[in-house]
Amino acid sequence: MIESFIRGSLNQRLIVMVISAMLIIGGFFASQKLSLDAFPDVTNIQVQIATVASGKSPEEVERFITVPIEIAMTGLPGLVEMRSLNKDSLSLITLVFTDQTDVYFARQLAMERLMQVQDEMPKDVAPILGPVSTGLGEIYQYTLELPGEENRQLTIPELTNRRTINDWVVRPMLRNINGVAEINSQGGYVKQYQVLVNPDRLAHYKIKMSRVYEALEKNNINSGAGYCQKVPSNFLFVVRD
After folding, report:
1. 67 and 86 Cβ atoms separated by less than 8 Å
2. Claim to verify: residue 143 and residue 214 sit in the same structural domain
3. DSSP one-letter string for 27-59
4. Does a structural domain hold residue 147?
5. How far apart are CA 98 and CA 203, in angstroms?
6. 119 and 170 share a domain?
């Protein structure tokens, strides 16, 4: 068989040369679009669930957060492995799925289970899904600077303004770029509004700290406005606190 193939190739030299030229040209154009990576990403399909629980020990984190989430995630389609890590104020659960499972489908299943177990979580604790990335993903860093301020030390208001611009202007714009999985802010100062309470004055007026919390919560409530289609001319509106 090999002898016949070689004999036929020698008899049809022109056809063999044309086919060889077509393969060479096609291989050249294919090499231009070939994705090369010195360290290929062989990470399996993973979904990470991170939960921040301020002030809780690893034992409390495991008992009240990690265990309920692990029970809720049991039996997910395509789930082959589940491991967890408990630290001070942090719970990290990693779900490993089969290679045939779509990562976004796996994240959707995990989010549905998280919504079911949310009522069992402690107060002010909200589990979140990690970004769609692996340890072999590329990481870029950027800074916000003005011309001529390389050697000048910024003040606290300036650093606060830079952080605000990055969180509310630059970060949302960069998240629209294809391939960006997550953007983390580092440095600067987050703008805060603080209420300094005088305990002596509270004791003098017999006001509990809980009432201060309630007043702050009511002050920050957003509510929709209404409207009046027709108001009689003899009506007088008085706004009271």
Report:
1. no
2. yes
3. HHHHHHT----SS-----EEEEEEEE-TT--HH
4. yes
5. 61
6. no
**For 5-57, what is each residue's pLDDT tens digit?**
788 887 888 888 889 999 999 988 888 887 766 666 678 899 999 999 988 89
CB atoms within 10 A of CB 70: 18
User: How far apart (Å, rounded) are the C-alpha atoms in residues 35 and 13?
Assistant: 34
Q: What token pair was written down for 160?
A: 């606060």
Whether the CB-CB separation of 51 and 84 falls below 8 Å is answered with no
pLDDT in tens, 64-77: 999 999 999 999 99
Look-up of token digits 């045939």: 100
Would 205 be classed as within a structural domain?
yes
Looking at this protein, which amino acid is placed at residue 103?
Answer: V
Q: What type of residue is 71?
A: I
Identity at 235, one-letter amino acid code? F
- In total, the chain counts a number of residues equal to 241
Cα–Cα separations (whole angstroms), residue 122 to 19, 54, 61, 130, 174: 69, 11, 10, 20, 34
**Domain of residue 214, residue span:** 138-220
User: Of the candidates 96, 114, 177, which has an alpha carbon nearest to the alpha carbon of residue 142?
Assistant: 177
Q: Which of 119, 98, 123 is nearest to 47 (CA)?
A: 98
